């Protein structure tokens, strides 16, 4: 059947063609916006403890920059694999005084500086939280000389937590993804002996990085490293002079090398030796920032504590910073320390 092409019919046909063309344009614009949103999506927030941990890091993470700064590549976080189960190596022997006190709790800071933009956070950063109530610490029984250096009782530091569960002294490092890369060791790291205590208790070091061991006290100390990995040499030397500094290195990765003073048996420290420079130790709020310069790629990031154990996450690093929240349980399956710290 032929429809007569009157002026009215021609106008209707033209109007329908215009409407169809307009719909196609809108569909193309909307599809392009969706593609751009997927390519520049928001930062991923990882949590092993649900919304409580996420809220904690939003409230507590300050702007942090590592002292071992590298050239930044402005990476971006991306999809994340589920956390791997807690893993367990061989424990060390245990000996500790019997006097119980409350766990070490760091008071809440009066001012917490939050990053204003994502440009103020770099690479991989985040927080480690402790799940559960830690056991009571013990009072260190100093000898008279060392006791005179302290006006108040000093406790062990098995678990050092802040007001809302941020866990200090956790080594966070890239555990997989850099096996084929070669790196120069970072500048020397200092392990001090001050007021008859190792300070800090936990440090990180790269393979063949210089560790400067210093005696800031006017008393004799002894430094005895007891590695368990073949290729890491045991050393045992005296430091009788105040401000005496000796340098040592470890040639193989080991989490952790135990160091003690044979003169003062409560003095213990731990060195986490890794095979790349991308590591950090959490501060008193449980916060960490890996050094800048980690290139884009897929990595396993591991957080390890002497008592609470170890947990890993897999990330894909692109342009934007990656924020991680690790949650470790009290008395985790992996117990490395056997000491009074």
3D architecture notes:
The chain contains three helices and 20 strands. β18 (297-305) and β19 (309-317) form a beta hairpin. By secondary structure, it is an alpha+beta fold. The strands form six sheets. Strands 9-15-14-11-12 form a five-stranded mixed β-sheet, with no helix packed on it. Strands 16-6-18-19 form a four-stranded antiparallel β-sheet, with no helix packed on it. A four-stranded mixed β-sheet has the order 8-7-10-13, with no helix packed on it. The chain has three domains: 7-40; 44-179 and 276-336, Carboxypeptidase-like, regulatory domain (Immunoglobulin-like); 184-268, Sandwich (Immunoglobulin-like), CATH 2.60.40.420.
Structural key phrases:
Immunoglobulin-like, 341 residues, alpha+beta, elongated, 5-stranded mixed beta sheet, 3 domains, 20 strands
Layout of secondary structure:
Layout: H1 7-39, H2 50-60, E1 100-101, E2 104-106, E3 124-131, E4 137-138, H3 144-147, E5 160-162, E6 171-176, E7 189-194, E8 197-199, E9 202-206, E10 211-215, E11 221-226, E12 235-239, E13 244-248, E14 254-260, E15 268-274, E16 279-281, E17 287-289, E18 297-305, E19 309-317, E20 322-329
Parallel strand pairs: 2-5, 3-20, 7-10, 9-15
Antiparallel strand pairs: 1-4, 3-17, 6-16, 6-18, 7-8, 10-13, 11-12, 11-14, 14-15, 18-19
């Amino acid at each position: 059947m032929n429809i007569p092409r009157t002026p009215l019919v021609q106008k209707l046909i033209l109007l329908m063609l215009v409407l169809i063309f307009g719909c196609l344009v809108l569909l193309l614009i909307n599809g392009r916006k969706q593609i751009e949103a997927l390519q520049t999506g928001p930062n991923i927030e990882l949590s092993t403890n649900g919304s409580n941990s996420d809220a904690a890091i939003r409230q507590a993470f300050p702007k942090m920059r590592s002292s071992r700064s590298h050239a930044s590549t402005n990476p971006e976080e991306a999809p994340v694999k589920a956390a791997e189960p807690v893993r367990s190596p061989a424990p060390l022997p245990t000996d500790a005084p019997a006097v119980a006190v409350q766990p070490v709790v760091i008071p809440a800071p009066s001012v917490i500086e939050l990053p204003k933009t994502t440009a103020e956070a770099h690479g991989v950063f985040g927080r480690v939280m402790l799940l559960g109530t830690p056991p009571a610490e013990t009072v260190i029984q100093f000898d008279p000389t060392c006791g005179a250096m302290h006006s108040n009782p000093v406790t062990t530091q098995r678990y050092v937590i802040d007001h809302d569960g941020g866990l200090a002294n956790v080594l966070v490092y890239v555990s997989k993804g850099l096996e084929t890369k070669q790196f120069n060791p970072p500048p020397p790291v200092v392990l001090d002996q001050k007021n008859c205590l190792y300070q800090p208790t936990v440090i990180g070091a790269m393979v063949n990085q210089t560790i400067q061991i210093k005696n800031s006290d006017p008393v004799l100390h002894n430094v005895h490293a007891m590695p368990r990995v073949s290729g890491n040499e045991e050393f045992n030397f005296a430091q009788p002079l105040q401000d005496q500094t000796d340098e040592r290195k470890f040639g193989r990765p080991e989490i952790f090398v135990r160091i003690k003073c044979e003169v003062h048996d409560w003095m213990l420290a731990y060195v986490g030796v890794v095979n790349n420079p991308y590591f950090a130790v959490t501060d008193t709020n449980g916060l960490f920032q890996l050094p800048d310069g980690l290139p884009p790629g897929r990595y396993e990031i591991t957080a390890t504590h002497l008592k609470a154990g170890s947990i890993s996450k897999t990330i894909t690093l692109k342009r934007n910073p990656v924020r991680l929240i690790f949650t470790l349980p009290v008395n985790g399956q992996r117990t490395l320390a056997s000491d009074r710290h």
